[in-house]
Amino acid sequence: MLHRVTFSSQTFQTSNNAANVPSWWRSAVFYEVYIRSFQDSNDDGIGDLRGIAQRLPYLKSLGVDAIWITPFYPSPMADFGYDVSDYTGVDPSFGTMADFDSLIQAAHDLGIRIVIDLVLNHTSDVHPWFAEARSSRGNPKRDWYIWRDAKPDGSPPNNWTGFFGGSAWQWDAHTGQYYLHLFLDRQPDLNWRNPAVVQAMELVLRFWLDKGVDGFRLDAINFLIKHEAFPDMPIATNATGGDLVQYHIYVNNQPELHPLLQHVRRILESYPGDRVLIGETGTLKAPELSQFYGAGLDEIHLPMIVLPLHTTWQAQAMRECLLEFYAGLPERAVPHFVFSNHDDKRLITRYGLEHHRSIAMLLLTLSGSPILYYGDEIAMCDMYVPPEKRVDTAGMINPENYPGRDPNRTPMQWNASTNAGFTAETVESWLPINENRSTINVETQAQDPDSTLSFYKSLLHFRSSSRALREGSIQFLEDSGDVLAYLRECGDERLLIVINFGSDSPVLDLSVLTDHAHCVLSSTMQRPEAVAVAEVTLNAYESMLFRLTSNKEG
Ligand code: GLC
Ligand code: CA
User: Fold this and answer.
1) Which residue, 275, 304, 415, 471, is the most exposed by fewest CB within 10 angstroms?
2) Is the pLDDT of residue 16 over 60?
3) DSSP 491
4) Does the annotation mark 44 as catalytic?
């Protein structure tokens, strides 16, 4: 069935191009490399730093500007690196410090920036700081962590639960107190009210800044400071009126967090170069997100915006969600949209294969600096990992209901061979490799001009050449039914993006905007280069990018 869509007046405008000296991160495309799964270089079945270095030419040809590498520090791997036991080292399973130095050099030679993950909220339980802290109540490092007495009946000091389930308090029999852990019991929370902790971490920041990293992705940064009085947290039904959940209001975004973020920002700014802070803030609310930029834009440059991840793939819902965010953004703040990562379902698994290219179109044409998750560009999806192959602790707590994060962390599929080019054919990789590697792989798709990889590349390369996409304003259009439509403009360059969320084939009457719409790119990869018309029929689930010109220019 066909239905006609007409565009009426503009509803909103936000401009991203007000910076006098545009910083690279204001328009960069980031790419998350989950290190264990990207490329193994020494045939032990685990991805590593040299593996990333080997794949830099691929990343360059793909067209990304910067990569975020997940933690590679020494770790007992209870949370695969998010449990750090030495902040200034490299875990042997990922390589050596020399490997890191070569990687950063090679990346910079190609013009690719390197952002590393910094886990400030907690350490591993085998970190020497924690070993000291738990050795006795009188140890000078005792107060580097958060210790509390049991209630008179021996139960934990309050009702706080951890994000991986169960109480957030772990009993330490040796010293007779509980310690706090918002994540695994093997990840004790640091006490950021203690200036010695701040000083120790400052040295860590400086260590990596001296090495030339281009920035940090601050892990779980919203939780650094806990409410001083440790009150019980409220419990209520969740947003859909279902299960009872705990609202972590006394650990999330406490007022005393912000001076700390300003302090971290000042350290960064005392270094030459244009370094960036990306922050995992967990927030789903626009006003709260604004707080992480800082009142004077003096805290996190790019707080991660994960709301679209929690929004249904439906034109009106997505439009409302995006409008809310753009409206709530502080002036000159750059949105950093995250649609997929190592903690959540992959895009196809969440939204369906038919929408995959439209999701890329949206992410890469919104204003701001987006991030891709490795494998998105070849349409990797979650894999069923049988219980005996599961390694993510988070998936072992309640395996019936939650398989953990293994399904979305399977190795990158480079080619169609048994181990997909990720590791040697004779080796068992740390997580199984998806059988769909026969078609879902880089090598096959690189040869096919209509593949998802070719689509991503075209989109990324067009984006890098387009000021309208990198710096332009964004205006969402009204009354578009199943179609989300918006304009991106900068100087003379005027682009229109239309995304069909539905299975119908709507006819778009563009006459309000132009009479010449040249198709730059369609998600089908099947459109002629320059259709100069003011009326376009979209295919089911198709998304298109047009260059608009006036009649005279036509
Ligand atoms: C962040 C990471 C996640 C990790 C957690 C604890 O949410 O993205 O992978 O488990 O922090 O460090
Ligand atoms: Ca390896």
Assistant:
1) 415
2) no
3) T
4) no
The CA distances from residue 542 to 55, 313, 376, 500, 505, in Å, are 31, 14, 18, 5, 9
| CATH number assigned to the domain comprising residue 348 | 3.20.20.80
Query: What's the gap in Å between 80 CA and the centre of ligand 1?
Result: 9
Query: How many A from CA of 412 to the centre of ligand 2?
Result: 13
458: pLDDT strictly greater than 70: yes
pLDDT higher than threshold 80 for residue 195: yes
Last residue of a domain, one of 418, 433, 460: 460
Predicted TM-score (pTM) of the model is 0.96
> What residue has token string 């980031």?
30
Examine residue 15 and state whether it is found in any structural domain, yes or no. no
**What are the CA-CA distances from residue 77 to residues 70, 82, 342, 374 (Å)?**
12, 7, 15, 21
State in Å: Cα 183 to ligand 1 middle.
8
pLDDT at residue 268 greater than cutoff 60: yes
The verdict on 335 and 212 lying in the same domain is: yes
- Phi, psi angles (nearest 5°) of residue 302: -130, 80
pLDDT digits (tens, 9 = 90+) for 212-231: 999 999 999 999 999 999 99
Tell me: do 203 and 88 sit in the same domain.
Answer: yes
- Look up the domain containing 401 and give its range: 24-123+195-226+255-460
* pLDDT for 6: 64
pLDDT digits (tens, 9 = 90+) for 321-354: 898 888 888 989 999 999 999 999 999 999 999 9
* Ligand 1 atom at minimum distance from 405 CA: 9
Q: Which of 75, 80, 219 to mutate to test the pocket of ligand 1 (most atoms within 8 A of CB)?
A: 219
Q: Are residues 163 and 267 in the same domain?
A: no
Q: Are 13 and 476 in contact (CB under 8 A)?
A: no
Residues 279-307, buried b or exposed e (16+ Cβ, 10 A)?
A: bbbbbeebebbbbbbbeeeebbbbbbbbb
Q: How many domains, in total, are found in the chain? A: 2
Read off the pLDDT band of 17 (50, 70, 90).
very low
Same domain? For 136 and 111 the reply is: no
The answer for residues whose C-beta is within 8 angstroms of residue 492's C-beta and 6 or more apart is none
- Tell me what pLDDT residue 1 has: 45
Here the CATH number for the domain that contains residue 135 is 3.90.400.10
One domain, residues 211 and 80: yes
Clarify whether residues 119 and 134 are in a common domain. Answer: no
| Mean pLDDT across 50-77 | 98
Last residue of a domain, one of 180, 214, 246: 180
Pocket test for ligand 1, best of 85, 343, 405 (most atoms within 8 A of CB): 343
- Are residues 56 and 142 part of one domain? no
Among the listed residues 48, 91, 99, 219, the single catalytic one is 219
Q: For ligand 1, what atom is nearest to the CA of residue 83? A: 12
Query: Is 274 among the catalytic positions?
Result: no
- Asked whether residue 77 falls in the same domain as residue 210, the answer is yes
Ligand 1 site residues, Cβ closer than 6 angstroms: 79, 82, 119, 183, 219-220, 280, 342-343
Ligand nearest to the CA of 46: 2
- C-alpha 59 to ligand 2 mean position (Å): 19
- Give the model's pLDDT for residue 479: 65
Amino acid at 89: G
Please tell me the residue having the least CA distance from ligand 1 atom 7: 220
